[in-house]
Amino acid sequence: MIGYIVQRLFAILVILVVMSMLIFGVTQILPGNVAYVIAGQFATPDVVHAIELKLGLNDPIYVQYWRWASGILRGDLGQSLVMERPVGPIIADALGASAILASCSFVFVATIGITLGVIAAVRQNKAVDHGISIFTYVGISVPEFFWGIVLVIVFARYLDWLPPGGRGDASDSLLTRISYLVLPTATLTFTLIAHVSRMTRSSMIETLRTQYVRNARAKGLPERVVIWRHALRNALLPTITVLAVDIGWLIGGIVVVETVFSYPGLGRLMIYALERHDLPLIQGSILIITAIYCSANLLADLLYAFVNPKIRYGNAVR
Amino acid sequence: MPRLPMKLWIGGTIVVLLIALAAFAPLIAPYPFDGMSLLNRFKPPSAQFWFGTDEYGRDVLSRTLYGARLSLIIGFGATLISLVIGVPLGLIAGFKRGRIDEWLMRGTDVLMSFPPIMLGLLVLAATTPSLPKAVIAVGIVYVPVLVRITRSVTLDLVNEEFIQAAHARGERMSYILAAEILPNAWPPIVVEASLRITFAILLGAALSFVGMGAQPPSSDWGLMIAEARPFIDRAPWIALAPGFAMCITVIGINLLGDGLREALDPRLQLSRAG
Q: Could you tell me the pTM of the whole model?
């Protein structure tokens, strides 16, 4: 197990290094010279040249990459061109906001998804099952930004129950601040729930047919205990993998949902940076988001290997 | 012969209708998709404008109809791109094994370590955004998946007798790949590709929505929804029409894909668990 963990950690490390090269390389061909962005559109060539010299923009690309990468290792992501502040703290703030939104959504996706899946499995081919299947089908077929807008129209504009976007201030009461989270969380949850509930349903159906579930029933255990304690625990294994895949979807969805709800998280920050060609901010935010994505995947793999000792590195063709 | 699944019928009908609407958009649409009319701004749905008009007085119905073209182009175009790049790479990786396989697999590892939308944005970040570039970006995002699927199918096939026979006859690698392996590797690849179409439509719309895909005055659905956002309190219909159109499209293609899989894969019919 320890060998497996070390192997995976090393693989992730290599991937991160290659990824940082990719991100750096791609952002280097971005339209709009950084020096022009800093100097503004009325700058004279002299000014632009001076900025280029100061930032070392004429150095060979590997020198620039090394400067950037070694900066990251020291915790320095550079200076945002548009906001004129260090990138690190800007990203840290946004990351905090995103983390709250992501963890709320993840908790709801997991709990509601698994519950729906179990109910659908127990009531297989009954009306409830079909209802859940249609509900999740619609959720997965609709882009999150459209759900976001529908929810805003209904709950913010029409009913006026919840704020349409933003995050609230530190001075707001806890309840007010939670109210800002409701719509984005609901949007993300609804678009992600289908995978989890479907996977739980099918693995539950299989588990419910097994001998030990029949045994548990024959022992006279209450149906509630049989389903939630005995069957579900064994049916959860495939669900864990799906939940891990969902983390990826969650990170993708969060970019869009934050834009819809003007929620000041990492995703919106990245779009903002892309729109304004703020190179260091683009590089920093993409790098951090992908790094989180990788670690989430690693965590899921480890968890999976931990729960299921049959899975070991190297023999699974993915 | 089992009767065809219901899903196949419903999905097939929706998709055929959609393609027809998209193909004949210029004939069906009552107005040009970019025809502005300042006298008719923000008109709610009426007999004259079935789905209302937007901030420039453009007819939302016409724009939505033309948007179907773009959505289908993104879905099928991007999938085609990932097939064209991914399948040959997967075939070569699975057939040659060794170092080239190792490199290709590590390459897909890296690409799959990006969240899909991030990879799309990274590709688009390098250039000024436009719809064709968004199609290419979305296509590239799904290349690694197709490489892996094709590779694993190829791995299963290379040891079959008919491939060994082709080896013994002294056939060239390109012939074996194209004429012997590919025709037998198709089914799982097609199933995977059909899944990718709706992912591609949704990803393309998301890219357009955040401003990194189609550009105004295009009537891409994602872009239409993004442009409608500031006006949702007074003119919600501008966002709702393309939104519902997208739901119907994605549901239609998904149903068709599911139905095809059920019809083609008899194992699924026996254990209709998932």
A: 0.82
